[in-house]
Design a protein that fits this description.
With about 350 residues, this protein is an alpha+beta fold. About 30% of the residues lie in helices and about 15% in strands. The protein contains ten helices and twelve strands. α2 packs across α4. It is found in: Nucleus.
Length: about 350
C-alpha cells in the first residue's frame, strides 16, 4: 500500500464523562463535535420539549407535568456531560443527514441483512457510549476507555454485537454515508495528533500513534476512575478482541455488582443517623423512606429497584439536586457524605 493510500484511524480517549462526544467523533473519524455544541443542541431539544408540553389542553405551563419537567432540568445532558441518544441523533442528522436507529427497531434488522453490511455502530449502557466503525473493510472497536483501537474480525462482529445487547447495551447503527476515513497525514488536522493511529501498524500489533517516536501507553482515565495500561503489542487479533470485549463489558459487571446490594430494613425514625429521602418513582408515584447516613448511596438504588419491581430488566436513571445530577456521580460515597438528607430523587427508566 502506498503512503498516499495509507489508512489512519481516529480514536479519542476518555475525558470526564464526555464519552457521548467521543463516540460521535470516533464514529465520524475526526474532531467534529465539541462538548459546547452538543450542550447547546441538548438545550434546544429541552426547549422544544417544553414548548410542546406547554401547548397541551390540561393546564399548559401550569400543568403538573410541565412544572415537574421544568423542575427536572435538562433531560438531554447532565452536569457531568453525559448526553442523551436524542442529542447524538440530532447531531448526526444536522451535520451529515444521517439516521441513528436502534438495531432492534422494527424493520431495521431486515434492512441490514448481514451485520457486516453496517458501516458504524453507537453502543450505550447507562452513562457510557462508544463507537464501532468500519474502516478499509475492517471493523474497529473505538471505545474511548481503551488505550487504542481494537480490531474486530468480520467473523466475530455478529457475536460482539449480540454480546453487547445480552449485557444490557443498546446498539444504534449508521447503515452507510459516514465521512470517508483519513488516508494521509495531511488530513489529520481533524483531531489531535495523539488520537491518530496507523491502521497497518495496528493490524500488525505495533500500535504506533501519529506522534513520531512517541510512547503512548494509554494511561488515561476510565469511567470508573481507574487507568488503562495494557500492552497490546505482539498479541494476536483474537487476543486483542478478547481484551476489547472484556473491557467493554467491565462497566456492565461493575453495575451488576452494585445492583446486587441487598436492601436493608428501613431504620426506625429515632435511630441514630437516620435521614429521610423523597422519591418520585418511575410509575409517577411518590414515596418517602428512611436510610442511615452510614449506608452506601447504592442502597438508594436498591430501594428504588425494589419499589419499582419492574420485572423487565430496564435500566434506572436516578437524579437529585438542581440542576439535576446523576446519582452515579456520588455512588462511591455514603448517604451522609453525599449530603442526601432531605433530597428528592427523580427516578425514571433510561
Amino acid at each position: 500500500m502506498s503512503a498516499e493510500s495509507e489508512f489512519w484511524i481516529y480514536h479519542e480517549r476518555q475525558q470526564a464523562l464526555l464519552c457521548g462526544q467521543h463516540a460521535l467523533n470516533n464514529l465520524v473519524q475526526g474532531c467534529v463535535f465539541s462538548a459546547d455544541s452538543l450542550s447547546q443542541l441538548a438545550l434546544q431539544l429541552d426547549e422544544m420539549e417544553l414548548q410542546f408540553m406547554s401547548q397541551n389542553n390540561e393546564g399548559g405551563v401550569r400543568s403538573k407535568d410541565y412544572l415537574e419537567r421544568l423542575a427536572e432540568g435538562s433531560a438531554n445532558v447532565d452536569p457531568s456531560g453525559n448526553f442523551s441518544i436524542e442529542v447524538l441523533r440530532a447531531a448526526l442528522q444536522r451535520q451529515y443527514s444521517l439516521e441513528l436507529p436502534n438495531i432492534r427497531q422494527e424493520g431495521v434488522a431486515g434492512a441490514i441483512g448481514d451485520v457486516t453490511n453496517v458501516e458504524g455502530f453507537i453502543c450505550n449502557k447507562e452513562s457510557h457510549w462508544f463507537a464501532i466503525r468500519k474502516i478499509n473493510d475492517r471493523f474497529w472497536n473505538l471505545n474511548s476507555m481503551e488505550e487504542r483501537p481494537s480490531l474486530i474480525s468480520h467473523f466475530r462482529l455478529a457475536a460482539e454485537v449480540q454480546g453487547l445487547q445480552d449485557n444490557g447495551y443498546s446498539v444504534f447503527i449508521v447503515m452507510s454515508g459516514l465521512p470517508a476515513p483519513c488516508t494521509s497525514k495531511e488530513e489529520q488536522t481533524r483531531g489531535l495528533p495523539e488520537y491518530w493511529w496507523k491502521e497497518d501498524d495496528l493490524v500488525k500489533g505495533k500500535g504506533s500513534s501519529a506522534i513520531t517516536g512517541a510512547s503512548f501507553p494509554g494511561s488515561g482515565m476510565r469511567l470508573d476512575g481507574q487507568s488503562n495500561s495494557h500492552d497490546l503489542s505482539n498479541l494476536t487479533e483474537e487476543e486483542m478482541l478478547q481484551i476489547a470485549l472484556a473491557q467493554s463489558m467491565e462497566q456492565s459487571a461493575t453495575t451488576s455488582e452494585a445492583k446486587a446490594l441487598a436492601l436493608t430494613p428501613e431504620p426506625a425514625a429515632d435511630a441514630a443517623g437516620a435521614v429521610k429521602i423523597q422519591f418520585r418513582l418511575p410509575n409517577g408515584g411518590r414515596s418517602v423512606r428512611r436510610f442511615l447516613e452510614s449506608e452506601p448511596v447504592e442502597m438508594i438504588r436498591a430501594f428504588v429497584e425494589d419499589a419499582s419491581n419492574d420485572g423487565q430488566g430496564r435500566q434506572l436513571q436516578l437524579k437529585f439536586g438542581f440542576p439535576p445530577k446523576d446519582l452515579k456521580t456520588v455512588a462511591n460515597k455514603t448517604i451522609g457524605e453525599a449530603s442526601l438528607n432531605g433530597e428528592s430523587i427523580q427516578c425514571r427508566y433510561a
